[in-house]
Amino acid sequence: MESITIKVDDDLAREIDLAMKPYYSTKTEFIREAIRDKIKMIRKDEAIDKLNSFFGKSKVKTSKSEERNIRDQVSKRFAKDFGIELE
Questions:
Q1: Could you tell me if 54 and 44 are in contact, meaning their C-beta atoms sit under 8 angstroms apart?
Q2: How many CA atoms lie within 13 A of 32 on its CB side?
Q3: Which of 11, 21, 41, 63 holds its CA 20 to 30 A away from the CA of 48?
């Protein structure tokens, strides 16, 4: 395991202490989890950006009414699969 040393100002150190108390036993554990969460968020944002790069590239255009019909069909299918009754 690699050791990393960081310095934070007193105000941030106090905020870390307050935020970690009910959930984490050490600052190290709290900071590790914060870093993991940040990495997940970065990866998610990158995936969304990549997905968005494909938006609008379809050669087939769908009308608003066709989109609405497709959404209705998908909703009914999910409702049926999950045992939900739609009105």
A1: no
A2: 9
A3: 63
Q: Nearest 5°: CA angle at 53, between 69 and 65? A: 15
pLDDT at position 56: 73
Report the first-to-last Cα separation within the chain, whole angstroms: 56
Tens of pLDDT, residues 13-60: 999 999 998 899 999 999 999 999 999 999 999 999 898 888 777 777
Residue 3 has pLDDT above 90, yes or no: yes
- List the chain domain ranges: 10-81
The whole-angstrom separation of Cα 82 and Cα 25 is 40
